[in-house]
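Support request, please re-run this one:
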Amino acid sequence: MSKINHEEAYDENYIADILKKVKTIAMVGASNDKTKFSYGVLRVLHETGYKMFPVNPTLAGSNIRGLKVFPSLSSIDEKIDMVQVFRKAEDLPRVAIEAVEIGAKVLWGQIGVKHPEAAKIAEEAGLKVVMNRCPKIELFRPFWKPKLNLEI
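Re-run finished. Output below.
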């Protein structure tokens, strides 16, 4: 696997490939507060067709948009393709270790969430890594529109 410089712009094909291949996404730091950005991202990804698994220990057992909230990644009983992180950057290495442990294929840090050690942990285990980007925004870039059957 080639080393990616996460300080530079990602190749759009790298991002598009990830968004086309993943089916299940665990969102660490999901919120039930409709004013929070994480809620809106969860909504759009869910409505786009991804199977979403909200992860938030303080909300565990409740529901967000009808989706059961899990206390941790390891408590999810399905295979997770992508772990999306809405946490502070310093939490990312711990989440990277958990993503590796559950066999995820992608670690994705939301805008403002990046940590070189987390990238190293995930990449050395074979995961693809995206940091400081939003999948909701990436879905609506021009290269993605054919997947959504929208006019370009």
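The chain has a mean pLDDT of 92. The first strand starts at residue 24 and ends at 28.
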